[in-house]
Description:
single chain; Arc Repressor Mutant, subunit A; D-Maltodextrin-Binding Protein, domain 2; two-stranded antiparallel sheet; 11 helices; 10 strands; transcription regulation; DNA-binding
Amino acid sequence: MAVAPPRPQIPPLNSLRAFEAAARLGGFSLAADELCVTPGAVAQHVKSLEAWVGADLFIRRSQGVELTELGQNVLSEFSAAFDQLGLAVQTLRSQATPKHIRIAALPSIAQLWLSPKLPSVREAASDLTISVTAMEKEPNLQREPFDLSIFYQDNLNSPKDTFSTTYEVCKDIIFPVCSPQVAKRLKVPEDLEKELCLHDASWAEDWTKWVACALPHTPLNTDGSVFSLYGLAIEEARNGAGIMMGHQALVEHHLENGSLVAPFDTSLTLDRALVIATAQSARNNPYLELIITTLLGK
């Protein structure tokens, strides 16, 4: 009589994924954000994995969690495994639907830089379907379902991600912009003291940095309205509500059509750039190079 004993079960994939994300990111809350679940769900998944292992993977402290020696020893292997799994899934998707290009972009970039260029992309490749997702945090192109991402990146000289290819579009150059009507009242930067300065919450230091460059020895009060959406602040500047700190790539369309003007000559180049990144899984997509070439204006 044949003997068929039950085979040992491996842990659920969700438990392994929760451990890897929490270990890599340094906490359950950050892992929950990435996995789109609650911190409690991440904690429960990790707890079930620890029960299966028979050992702790994290040290729980009141201020957070810390990997045990065991957790540290296996993290790199789990990250490499999920990277490869992500690459396989992304390659499958990309090859199955090569004419459906998915783009992730910072909301301000999607609205103010990418949107005006999409008609040219459609004209160059009319048979493509292009989906755009606006998001505040740059996606992991190895694991998330995007072919392209368009974000501002700092530390461009740091080691590159081996799972993506990057194209620098332009340096991030900032300078004040306003409507033509408001510009008539501005002769020198000191005139800003009498005007309302508009601010973007994400780039809260823009005005401070530019004033330090334009008026290094002159204190200038730039307090004013704060907006959580850069595009909304730009619209308010176009409507004559005040002066906004423009990022050149994001306001060039409005400068060209005259709805915004730069009242002063002084600009400041920041230590970051607008960058297009392409996923490794999409490198063999023949349509991708056409899109990038069109976006770069080549």
